Amino acid sequence: MARTDLEALAIVSAAPAIDGQQSVLYPAGVQASSIHNLLTLMLWVSTAVAAIVLCVLFLAVRRSLGTKAGGNPSSTTDDVLARAVGIAVGTTVVLLVGLLVASVWTGRTIAAVHAASAVTIEITGHQWWWEIHYEDAVASRRVHTANELHIPTNRPVVLKVTSRDVIHSFWVPNLQGKRDLIPGYTTALWIEADRPGRFRGQCAEFCGLQHAHMALEVTAESDPDFERWLDAMRESPREPSDSGARRGRDVFMQTRCAGCHTVTGTEAAGQVGPDLTHVATRSSLGAGTLANSREHLAAWIRDPQSVKPGNQMPPSALSADDLENLVSYLETLR
Amino acid sequence: MSVGSDPNLEQTWADPPGVIGWLKHVDHKSIGRRYLVTAFGFFLIGGILAALMRIQLSRPDNTFIGPDLYNEIFTTHGTTMMFLFAVPVMQGLGIYLVPLMVGARSIAFPRLVAFSYWMLLFGGIFLFVSFLLNAGPDVGWFSYPPLAEPLYTPSKRADVWAQLITFTEVASLAVAVALITTVLKLRAPGMTLNRLPIFVWAQVVTSFMVLFAMPAVMLASTELILDRLVGTHFFDVEHGGDALLWQHLFWFFGHPEVYIIFIPGTGIVSTIIATFSRRHIFGYLPVVLSLVSTAFMGFGLWVHHMFATGLPQLGESFFTAASIMIAIPTGTQIFCWIATIWSGRLSLKTPMLWILGFFTIFVVGGLTGVMLAAVPLNTQVHDTFFVVAHLHYVLIGGAVFPLFGAFYYWYPKITGRLLSERLGTWVFALLFTGFNLTFFPMHVLGLRGMPRRVYTYPASMGWDTLNLLASVGALLMACGVITFLVDAVHAMYAGPVATDNPWDAGTLEWATSSPPPNSNFPRPPTAAGREPLWDNPPDQPVVVGLREDARDVLVTHVLDAEPDHRLIFPEPSIWPFLTGIATTVLFVWSIFTPWGVVYGAGPVFLAMVGWFWPKRPDEGGTPLWPFARRTLPRPDEAPAAGGAI
């Protein structure tokens, strides 16, 4: 078993580090790195302990099988055994206390990352998507988005997380351990990316039918890039210039779409579904269910239930033209 | 050692024949066998559900099973394995073996034990019928609100879960009470607590844990039922309820539950190691103290299931320390077992193979448990496949492998025939290889970001190879279980006939014939050591003077097992079965309307009146009045009888 432990380590070290690979083993943040160090320590200690215990067991079995019936059953007296067991238990206690100290130490290191100037982001879990608000003292500078998170590198970010329906769990393993989103509670989770990149996260608490399709994407970028992105998000989308898209906007406003979704700068102010103000800039649809493309967008609007059964969006009975125009409009929402 | 049975005595302790008679059985051996077979049947169903999950996850974006059915399947798998297999199978082993191991003629409260079996059986049937009617629970075996609240699960599925818990709670509490009483009051003279077999210690420690753990989940599931049935707001956040309250209550039960499953496993390990090393267990006292301290500490760890909820750091550190420290008693036991093997003369029969498998798997599971105790690491791997791997290493390694060892070890006692050593080696090899192939890759999957309870995953995640490997492993495990079933059925009719004590073991269940007679011991034994068959001198006395025309049982003192008094035990009865039916009606009815509790209580009351109907003194009953005449007879007096308990 000890060998298999090592082999597992080999498997994981051999794989290339790719941005976006959702993994504890490629930390890209201060917290995830600390945890990764603790993992490495514990993995090696555990492997050594398992190897020693199983070797001693093997020796015991070999010795015991060799002991002849009728002969002196054992030359090892119980006193010697008692001493051996005592030493083994003592060693166990020392090792465990060592690991406890390492664990508490890591916890302290992680908790030490905070700053008054941190970026504050509110994340609210929904069945099955993430609502994201960037706080700002000035109301007009607040940013609303969904299923995608942009953060600056090398700057602490505090996530204020809660849920509006059932319990979810926010987990971007490359950056930080998970935190449950519990209705009625708001807790603060600190993250700090130490290099730019795109990382995938996923809901980790079973939250119903589409728990498997509740992903989000985190983009860590330099401070200027991050500020540029925020500024872009604060803009309302431009009026569509092409006539199809304009007709599509009318479809959006006149059918049910606007009742559930918000597009800032228009009369659409629904709060049930994700904010669509900049939907065209996102890389995926349905919280990581589909890549964001024209065909997928059309398929999603036509029948969201066949793509992601159970989600709250009803199928729409739009004509082919209306659907085409609607998709054109959505594609202008940048 | 087997003594010719007295036909009169055998008749006295016989259960009635026929189908109706079958419903009246109170013999602990009969009930124990039913428990084992039924729980194993549930294990097979749970295993089939697991196989379906492995088929679904073997490929990315698989459409074999949809999300709705998948959620039902994993919930029913977890619920079945925890509540309908692991706990009952260990208790079933206790029901069968504990009275034999302590040299008693019966388990205490035999009718209560019979009733518990019906609750288990009806509970299981209720769950699987619901599943087939598309009403199987789908909110996880932990059933977290608000997901399990009526707003998010309007169907009856969460009610089925909550009410199944009620069934199994009643069953396991009843057995716990019976086992504790048996161990404390029905031991053979001479079997002081200091000489109690470690298997029996494990059973009694577990039973006490059941008594303290089950009320927490009973409270939680009752509150959930009330929220769902009559609109209370215990967990309803909108109306001032609290979602975390559930988690505290559930895990205050849920963590000890792990030890309720694992501690009997360690009892099996100690027993088999001592027998096949041909020596007394090394470190009896530390091993027993380890069991007891594990039981105590087991109640102080529940928060490590909630590290991701964002609790204060100081509190988390306490639970980290407690969770890490529970490795000390477990480590102590492992070292004592190795010392026993080291200084013994090992014989590598099939039961012992399973114990060596147990060591290998359990050590890994224990070490990943230490990792999970560390809060920072826990927040990364919690609710991922790493935990799936860990819990199966602990539960399959710590309980199922010893249990298979127990099947091979006690099968000859229960059936009078031996299982095949050759096939047994195959079963072991298949299950051991299959197990590691299935669950070892899951550690890596968890670290590579795969969360639990997902019905599918995108191909781009890079999880497909390891998942396929796990599914292949599951196939091997299935082959192993099927081979075992074939051997078990075949050996029952055609296996080599077993002697009374085929392993030259030292505990009292081997002092009687295989299978044991109705009275267990025609001459109830006494004990002069921890392994009476090894330690008793040739002239060790037996218990004499018990009546042969009545179910006369010797009751002994708690600490030193000195004879105290005699008691007439109850006859077979149909009432436990009828009470079971009435209780089932109440439980199932109450899912649909609160009035089910009110009206359903009537038949339960009537059935219990029948059950407890007092006997007149000339029928062997206790005179109700005056109190002075209600004292129990001393060992040298003629017995009066108790009521039908």
How does this structure look, described?
The complex is a heterodimer of chains A (334) and B (645). By secondary structure, chain A is of the alpha+beta class. In chain A, 41% of the residues lie in helices and 17% in strands. Chain A is built from 9 helices and 12 strands. A 5-stranded mixed beta sheet of chain A has the order 3-2-1-5-8. With 645 residues, chain B is mainly alpha-helical. In chain B, helix 5 runs parallel beside helix 18 (575-592), helix 6 (157-185) packs antiparallel against helix 7 (198-229) and helix 12 (350-373) packs parallel to helix 15. In chain B, a hairpin with a 6-residue loop joins strand 1 and strand 2. At the A-B interface, helix 1, helix 2, helix 3 and strand 8 of A face helix 4, helix 8, helix 10, helix 11 and helix 12 of B.
Task: Provide tags for this entry.
heterodimer, A: 334 residues, alpha+beta, 5-stranded mixed β-sheet, 3-stranded mixed β-sheet, 9 helices, 12 strands, 41% helix, elongated, B: 645 residues, mainly alpha, 19 helices, 2 strands, 62% helix, globular, disordered C terminus
